[in-house]
Amino acid sequence: MISIEQTVELNLTTPLDNCCNCGATGGLNLYQTPLRRTRFMLFVGTQLTLLETFPYCPKCKASAPRLRKNLMSKLLAACMVCAALFLILVLSASGLPKFVAENLFYAAVIGAAIATGVYFYLREKEGGERSYYQPVSLADVDLDFRSGAIECVTLKLRNAAYARVLAKANAETMRVGMLKIDVRM
Ligand SMILES: [Zn+2]
């Protein structure tokens, strides 16, 4: 489905002040954190991967390569749950309440939507201060219309303390408008 792939090194300054996920200060190491943006237009997809290393503590390092599921894969997951649920409902139709038995397809769609929604919500909330998925994500990227070169990258950081450290270390890149940093609360 993906027809155009592009991988670019970001080359930001990422100081080892604290873990970019939980904020811890001990035992930090830089780990490769691929930031990805995928766009679909009908059947053509473009995928842009930006490579950058960020500091993680030993407990958070596993979150570095865990990309958030995009809408497309969430929909795909919901469709698969829906199909499985529909099959289960069909097989057990005789034991179901009448209004469910008469609307098996809609019951499966609603059940799948709730199950997938709850699953991804819990994954996001898992671990409290620590994110299961990578704590840095690519919120937006502006490309030059003709050359395709990157003009501006907007990063979304989960950890406000590390967002400040990163902003300070890359002040010049931000001043010229090539980097924006968002903090997600
Ligand atoms: Zn950590």
Word description of this protein:
- The protein has five helices and eight strands; from the N terminus they run βββββαααββααβ.
- By secondary structure, the protein is of the alpha/beta class.
- It has two domains: 2-68 and 133-183, no CATH class; 71-125, no CATH class.
- The chain is elongated and about 65 Å long.
- Zinc ion (ZN) is lined by residues 19, 21-22, 24, 56-57, 59-60.
Straight-line N-to-C gap: 33 Å
Q: How many runs of DSSP E, i.e. beta strands?
A: 8
Instruction: Give start-end ranges of low-pLDDT stretches.
Output: none
Main sheet properties = 3 strands, mixed
Structural class: alpha/beta
Radius of gyration: 21 Å
Overall mean pLDDT stands at 88
Strand order within the widest beta sheet: 1-4-3
Overall domain count = 2
Bound molecules: zinc ion
* Topology order in helix (H) and strand (E) letters: EEEEEHHHEEHHE
- From the structure provided, what is the oligomeric state, counting identical versus distinct chains? single chain
Counted by DSSP, the helix tally is 5
Strand proportion: 25-35%
- Percent helix, as a range, is 25-40%
Shape: elongated
SSE diagram, text form:
Layout: E1 2-9, E2 29-32, E3 35-41, E4 44-51, E5 53-56, H1 71-91, H2 98-101, H3 104-125, E6 136-143, E7 150-157, H4 160-169, H5 171-175, E8 179-183
Parallel strand pairs: 1-4, 7-8
Antiparallel strand pairs: 2-5, 3-4, 6-7
The chain binds zinc ion.
The site of zinc ion has 8 residues, from loops.
Please describe the structure with a list of short key phrases separated by commas or semicolons:
185 residues, alpha/beta, 2 domains, 3-stranded mixed sheet, 5 helices, 8 strands, elongated, binds zinc ion
